[in-house]
Amino acid sequence: MIEVAGKRIAVIGLSRTGIATATMLNEHGAKVIASDVKSKEELEKTVNILTEKGIEFELGGHGEKCLACDLLVVSPGVPLELPFFKKAAAKGIPIIGEIELAYHFTKASIIAITGTNGKTTTTRLLGNIMEKSMPGQVKVVGNIGVPMIQEVVGLDSDDWIIAEISSFQLETIKEFRPYISLYLNFTPDHLDRHKTIEGYWEAKRRLFMNQRAGDYAIINDDDPAVIRAAEGCKAWKYLISTSNCIARGVYLKDGQLFIRDKDKTGILKESIISVDDIPLRGRHNVMNTAFAITAAHLAGVDKDDIRQGILNFSAEEHRLQEIAVDDDGTLYIDDSKATNPDAAINALNSFSQPLILIAGGQDRDADFSEFARTVYEKVRVLVLLGETKKKLKEAVLKKGFDNINIHEAVDMKEAVSLAFNELRAGDCLLLSPACPSWDMYLNYKERGREFQREVDLKRGG
């Protein structure tokens, strides 16, 4: 455990994670300095919380108070290339993140889940399976929206932490060691933060950094970048595939997910669930389910509990969420969480009926060529909005998409109106933006809610 009592510790970045970290450290006797680049006026509610708890703060930037500390704990949203961190490193101040700190304060077994897409769905699904099998012993935390530090204190060795872990969080680990790690997939993302694809990949592969014999690593056998990231990992490896039968792990065959492992009688091979019974759309969610099955199996959950945990699971809002179906079969789907091209491609491949797609958002220099190819193959009408609408239009035209079937909108209201003008019986109206939302919205949830409101109004709800 990291000793914090009596230590002067700066918490950098006062998001939900930063506030939870500062609170925990304060309760454990640390002399906390809470810091953010925003002003006191911008953080009025946060300042009130800190003041009530007697926590000192330094706002409008990170200055001398923070540089006079014994330890810096960085919130995941704070970029490490800030000049402040170079000054701190030059002074020899250790820099860690919140999940590293949390790791040192718990006896619970940790299951850590990363990947470009599917992290939240897999984390929630695994949590659903294990919570029903081990009531009161499971905490679902991390990038899913619940700071890990908020839940770990007081957990015992019989308890489990299921943590969604982002590349931002992995950048600042030192000793963090999951008992079971899951690496779902890899496609380029967050290049505004990591600068290069290799930099993003290097951050992700840190998930395996401290695992050793006796731990487990569950990896995507269909993804060469994931396989490469796991090279040298000392944990016992289990594979996931929807393409090949494998020796140890979960694979798809004849419409069934099979688990294969060794037990006391030799080789265990069992069907866990039919793909048709999985309550989530898309082949990518078959893969997510396979990961959850494997992790639950390794955590000691039996086959029947795994199956029941899958069957009674429902998708989260804004993730291929079915919001309405008309009598003529017209379907309305909110997939606002598709904030990168690969996630949107997965969404497009989840439907067989004609698609009217609303896409576009913040420009983060993503490569849209593969997304454009899938749009050409799957989409009947494309409605574009946000910063990327010109770039997306250019990309799909290059693939041969008909210009007459592309519309540009200034906002979601116009986008939905244009889409409804094109709707035919049996179509699917899909919001799957392939881009972040921050050019027009606070987050993807706000974008999805507006889409749902406008659809409801158009349908006369």
Automatic annotation (TrEMBL):
<keyword id="KW-0547">Nucleotide-binding</keyword>
<feature type="domain" description="Mur ligase C-terminal">
    <location>
        <begin position="318"/>
        <end position="435"/>
    </location>
</feature>
<dbReference type="GO" id="GO:0071555">
    <property type="term" value="P:cell wall organization"/>
</dbReference>
<keyword id="KW-0436">Ligase</keyword>
<feature type="binding site">
    <location>
        <begin position="115"/>
        <end position="121"/>
    </location>
    <ligand>
        <name>ATP</name>
    </ligand>
</feature>
<dbReference type="Pfam" id="PF21799">
    <property type="entry name" value="MurD-like_N"/>
</dbReference>
<dbReference type="InterPro" id="IPR036615">
    <property type="entry name" value="Mur_ligase_C_dom_sf"/>
</dbReference>
<feature type="domain" description="Mur ligase central">
    <location>
        <begin position="113"/>
        <end position="296"/>
    </location>
</feature>
<dbReference type="GO" id="GO:0005737">
    <property type="term" value="C:cytoplasm"/>
</dbReference>
<dbReference type="InterPro" id="IPR036565">
    <property type="entry name" value="Mur-like_cat_sf"/>
</dbReference>
<dbReference type="Pfam" id="PF08245">
    <property type="entry name" value="Mur_ligase_M"/>
</dbReference>
<keyword id="KW-0961">Cell wall biogenesis/degradation</keyword>
<dbReference type="InterPro" id="IPR005762">
    <property type="entry name" value="MurD"/>
</dbReference>
<dbReference type="InterPro" id="IPR004101">
    <property type="entry name" value="Mur_ligase_C"/>
</dbReference>
<comment type="similarity">
    <text>Belongs to the MurCDEF family.</text>
</comment>
<dbReference type="GO" id="GO:0051301">
    <property type="term" value="P:cell division"/>
</dbReference>
<protein>
    <recommendedName>
        <fullName>UDP-N-acetylmuramoylalanine--D-glutamate ligase</fullName>
        <ecNumber>6.3.2.9</ecNumber>
    </recommendedName>
</protein>
<dbReference type="GO" id="GO:0008360">
    <property type="term" value="P:regulation of cell shape"/>
</dbReference>
<dbReference type="GO" id="GO:0009252">
    <property type="term" value="P:peptidoglycan biosynthetic process"/>
</dbReference>
<dbReference type="Pfam" id="PF02875">
    <property type="entry name" value="Mur_ligase_C"/>
</dbReference>
<comment type="function">
    <text>Cell wall formation. Catalyzes the addition of glutamate to the nucleotide precursor UDP-N-acetylmuramoyl-L-alanine (UMA).</text>
</comment>
<keyword id="KW-0131">Cell cycle</keyword>
<keyword id="KW-0133">Cell shape</keyword>
<dbReference type="GO" id="GO:0008764">
    <property type="term" value="F:UDP-N-acetylmuramoylalanine-D-glutamate ligase activity"/>
</dbReference>
<keyword id="KW-0132">Cell division</keyword>
<keyword id="KW-0573">Peptidoglycan synthesis</keyword>
<dbReference type="InterPro" id="IPR013221">
    <property type="entry name" value="Mur_ligase_cen"/>
</dbReference>
<keyword id="KW-0963">Cytoplasm</keyword>
<comment type="pathway">
    <text>Cell wall biogenesis; peptidoglycan biosynthesis.</text>
</comment>
<keyword id="KW-0067">ATP-binding</keyword>
<dbReference type="GO" id="GO:0005524">
    <property type="term" value="F:ATP binding"/>
</dbReference>
